[in-house]
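Listing 4. Sequential folding, example run.
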Amino acid sequence: MSKEQTPRQLPAPCIIDSGTIVSKDDMKRLLNDLCHVHYLHTIDEELNSEGKGWILEVFSHPYQSTLIANGNLYINIQSFDYIQLSQSPEGGNYFDLIQDNRRLRLIPIVNSKPEPASVKNIDAATIEAMVTEVLSARWDVQLDDDDF
């Protein structure tokens, strides 16, 4: 290859509803949105344990463990080689975290009841409007106090 020719850079992967994720950053990003899951832990394709739980933390650390206990999941993406993203016949996604002969399947539990509004569900424009309203009310109070 001559100096004038530069290697053509390949586009970043695009994975939609199914595929294999090997990038640790992509793995973490994908799992961060999960909350309540049904999990199946298999070794050599034999069911070792299963249950339901809440994903409390997704992190990346070379020496800390992935922990599942008391209905809580703390997932270290360094514990797994890759994630296989698949779609169930019903149309929902599930996530197989793979490391050698170990598989941790996470199936999101979709709550049929609407969740109460939380700060996480409020968009930036709404937050900005609320802050503006609070500051405006404070300035009005300060101006009223200055008149006396």
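-- end of first protein; second protein begins --
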Amino acid sequence: MKGYILTFLISMVPLVELRGGVPYGIIMGIPWQKALPLCMIANMIPVPFIFFFARKVLIWGSDKKYTRRFFTFCLEKGQHGGEKLKAKAGRGIYVALLLFVGIPVPGTGAWTGTLAASMLDLDFKKSVIAVLLGVLLAGAIMTVLSLLGVTAFT
């Protein structure tokens, strides 16, 4: 049970997300058929909160003494990521959002993608669908890579 809980929690952590949760779960002996949906659910739980509240909290904290640097960094990262995504994607912004979330490289993922969607004032429902499909893509990639890595050492 401890492995399931830790896998779930790891998948909720920003920057790590299910990119860390899936391999951890598989290494802990959780079958991939259980690890993948567990990690996807955990990765998606923060999405509505990020979409509706993160920008407001970051703006509020960007002028506070102890949070200024970190909150400003997050705002700039979200704004930069959003503008870059918008410039490249044009009218295919939701497909670009899906790919941004789905390609498991550092700095991408549900947290950053949702923050970018919020910063760009994209439609909530379409953004959540794009992020969910991106999480599924990232989860599939990480599952395959984890299984290849785990079986290569056994």
